[in-house]
Amino acid sequence: MSDESKNSETADIDPNASPADLKAAADDILKSAPKEQAELSPEEAMQKLEIEKEEMREQLLRTLADLENTRKRAERQVTDARIYAIEKFAGDLLSVSDNLGRALSALSEEDRNALSEPGRNLFEGIEMTQKELHTALARHGVTAIAAEPGDAFDPNQHQAVANIPSDQPNGTIASCFQPGWKIGERTLRAAMVAVSAGSAN
């Protein structure tokens, strides 16, 4: 609006006018001002409210979905923290299990039968120690990975260190050199295996 228009609107207002006259002049100015938005009909108002209600409903559903995802993510993090908190400690214990296994496999069945009573007691003590260690590991979610001859080779759980002729089907496990372990669903240490190349004949 130009200064001339402003002056024309205020020119008719007498500064010395009474409050009633000033109010009447203000009402005239307000009536002459263009309305920013026409009043809605009842049907249009109802339609607008329905749209706003649907928008609020969708926003509420999105918020609830976000909250549910946050809750599930927090639960998963707590569960993972509980399961995998001992991952490093469990990994350190695997060498203990390996050494116990080597001690037990050092003697053949014939040599075991030839042991004196103190020797048998020592051997049985090693067996019990290994069993208790594995039980304790299992109690905390640490379990051995299956790697028997004929089992399918799984690159996520098995590490192939050799490919040898074998009576086992081609591509399956022929033999296991070192047992593997997992904690929960995560591989803690892959089993070291030889993969069968099929029969040499």
Number of helices: 6
Q: If strands are numbered along the chain, what order do they take across the biggest sheet?
A: 1-4-5
What spatial form do the alpha-carbon principal axes imply? elongated
The ordered string of helix (H) and strand (E) elements is: HHHHHHEEEEEE
β content, as a range? Answer: 15-25%
CATH T-level topology of the domain at 142-201: Nucleotide Exchange Factor Grpe, Chain A, domain 2
* Helix vs. strand class: alpha+beta
**Count of β-strands:** 6
Family: Belongs to the GrpE family.
Biased composition (Basic and acidic residues): 24-38
Subcellular location: Cytoplasm
Main location: cytoplasm
Tag the structure with descriptive keywords.
201 residues, alpha+beta, Nucleotide Exchange Factor Grpe, Chain A, domain 2, 3-stranded antiparallel sheet, 3-stranded mixed sheet, 6 helices, 6 strands, 56% helix, 15% strand, elongated, disordered N terminus, protein homodimerization activity, adenyl-nucleotide exchange factor activity
Describe this structure in words.
It is a single chain. The protein has a three-stranded antiparallel sheet. The protein has a three-stranded mixed sheet with strand order 2-6-3, with no helix packed on it. Mean pLDDT is about 85; it is low at about 1-10. It has a domain at about 140-200: Nucleotide Exchange Factor Grpe, Chain A, domain 2, CATH 2.30.22. With about 200 residues, the chain is an alpha+beta fold. A hairpin with a 2-residue loop joins β4 (about 180-185) and β5 (about 185-190). It contains six helices and six strands, in the order ααααααββββββ. Homodimer.
